[in-house]
Design goal:
With about 525 residues, this protein is an all-alpha fold. The protein has 19 helices and no strands.
């Protein structure tokens, strides 16, 4: 366990950055408590408003599921958000408590402005039939298994002060659930486990990002030494006084950027899981997007009609389909496209539009139709991926454009995140940071290198982390803030000739290597157990 009283770096206790007097203690906790209470009041009010259309709400199940999902983000705050403030604290650019509040605020903004691409990219790793039946016993077992597994591993690594990756843990838990779903499927049945093509893309981003962080941070520090010849930047702070103004501004800017990018990227993982819970527990309120734009359902119907016409051009003569939904579902599970898939998808889209056609908006849909409509539209969206993403059905450019337009309308109907969900995630991340930030901050600031973190090292590591996480967010890929920043700090220590504390590096590598197999095994076992409970 990390000793937050002393470290191998030998920083004198009277000038330790975590003890630096800052005058924020008197108003820090009251201000934070006011923000938490205000946020909780808003979340409670917004949730109650969304549930007004629901006849019966299983409050205990809903409360337990939301508590566990927010608990995952709370523990995520232990690990990841703390990384953003380590450099500004150890370079005396900001007092510790003020830095944590500053980081929490920009995490909050990052969560609120998130696009949702990462959230639904994570969900797409799950078995399709579990997503379509998330309100069933298997669906609930899936959600609880992957969340509990991720929390257990994150708490264990936090207790040991290891900067392990919450993203890595969550991906491993999802893979474990997928494998367990295949393992428990009846013999001869068609079921899906892990989408290995999507999992490999996500795994590659998680694998490469720490190497990118190490290499680019080291390179950036060497370039800075060539271009900015100021010895103070590359030496340990000689006192607790803040650095020169321009360096201080740069360090605060990078801390802000990493915090914002972290909120935008990591916060989305919890958003996606909460949406799965809401769709499964109270589908009549959350299965379809109740957007203020009353015309979006009409736009969906119009785009669906165009795609029906387009698909008709690619139906081969003499191909007949009796059960369109089954054929489309098999294509999505197997990621293949057969001659009968085209007419099946066309027929399935037509039947779904016919179901919706009598109703001008989602609010007018009978509650008995909401879940079926959502599942149909979601399955159509997964099938459209095989056309516009994987190119399994070659099309002319204009026809493909019509498919893409319809795909956006489909996603608008089923892939949405209410504002109150974003606020709840932001609060959970912030609260986790307030409670557990010191352990990981000490590891990053003192335990990676053999000397005190310099201004140049802090700026290089955080600039690279900010750019890497923001790029991954733009591409819809999850990356680990922890891995990127801690490897960036290690890279700057190596480039600066400061030396590395190999005991810490070895423990970090062990956590990195063990996270996937351990979280896979935990989720696998928990899924099997929860299938007997629900």
């Amino acid at each position: 366990m990390v000793d937050i009283v002393s470290s191998e770096a030998g920083i004198p206790r009277p000038e330790h950055p975590l003890d630096r007097p800052n005058g924020t203690g008197k108003w820090f906790l009251p201000a934070f408590a006011a923000i938490i209470l205000g946020g909780l009041a808003y979340v409670g009010y917004a949730l109650s408003q969304d549930l007004t259309s629901t006849v019966a709400v299983p409050w205990i199940l809903l409360g337990l599921a939301l508590l566990i999902a927010l608990g995952f983000e709370f523990v995520n705050g232990f690990h990841d958000t703390a990384n953003a403030v380590a450099t500004v604290i150890y370079t005396h650019s900001m007092p510790a408590e003020l830095a944590v509040m500053w980081s929490g605020f920009f995490n909050f903004l990052g969560v609120l402005t998130a696009s949702g691409a990462v959230a639904f990219g994570i969900i797409s790793l799950l078995p399709v039939e579990l997503i379509l039946q998330v309100g069933s016993s298997a669906g609930l077992a899936m959600v609880f298994a992957l969340l509990v597994a991720a929390i257990m591993w994150n708490l264990g690594t936090w207790y040991l002060g290891l900067p392990a990756s919450s993203s890595h843990t969550l991906i491993g838990s999802i893979i474990g659930v997928g494998l367990a779903n295949q393992f428990m499927a009846p013999a001869g049945s068609v079921t899906s486990g892990v989408d290995w093509s999507q999992a490999s893309n996500v795994g590659l981003s998680l694998l490469i990002s720490p190497l990118v962080g190490f290499g680019l941070a080291a390179l950036l520090l060497l370039v800075m030494k060539l271009l900015v010849r100021n010895r103070e930047l590359y030496e340990a702070p000689k006192s607790s006084a803040p650095p020169p103004l321009w360096i201080r501004a740069l360090l605060i800017f990078t801390c802000t950027g990493v915090s914002f990018a972290h909120g935008s990227n990591d916060g989305q993982k919890g958003m996606g899981l909460i949406m799965l819970i809401l769709i499964g527990v109270v589908p009549t309120a959350f299965a379809l997007n109740r957007t203020p734009d009353v015309n979006y359902l009409e736009a969906y119907k119009s785009a669906a009609t165009q795609v029906e016409t387009v698909l008709g051009k690619y139906v081969k003569p003499g191909v007949a389909v009796t059960d369109a939904a089954t054929v489309v579902g098999d294509a999505v599970r197997t990621k293949t496209w057969k001659d009968e898939t085209t007419p099946a998808l066309r027929s399935f889209i037509h039947d779904t539009s016919a179901m919706l056609s009598p109703y001008p908006s989602v609010e007018k849909l009978p509650t008995t139709l909401v879940s079926n409509a959502r599942n149909n539209i979601y399955l159509i969206g997964e099938a459209l991926k095989l056309i516009d993403k994987k190119k399994l059905l070659p099309m002319e450019a204009d026809d493909l454009k019509a498919v893409t337009t319809y795909h956006k309308a489909v996603d608008n109907a089923t892939k949405f995140i209410p504002l109150w969900v974003k606020v709840a995630i932001a609060l959970a991340l912030g609260l986790g940071t307030m409670v557990g930030w010191k352990r990981i901050v000490v590891t990053v600031g003192e335990k990676i290198g053999k000397s005190h973190l310099t201004y140049g090292q802090g700026a290089s590591a955080e600039l690279v982390a900010m750019a890497t996480i923001a790029s991954a967010d733009y591409l819809g890929l999850p990356v680990s803030t922890t891995h990127v920043l801690s490897s960036g700090v290690a890279g700057t220590m190596a480039a600066n000739g400061s030396g590395l504390q190999w005991s810490t590096v070895r423990n970090m590598l062990m956590a990195w290597i063990l996270t996937l197999p351990v979280s896979i095994c935990l989720a696998f076992v928990l899924f099997v157990i929860f299938r007997q409970v629900f």
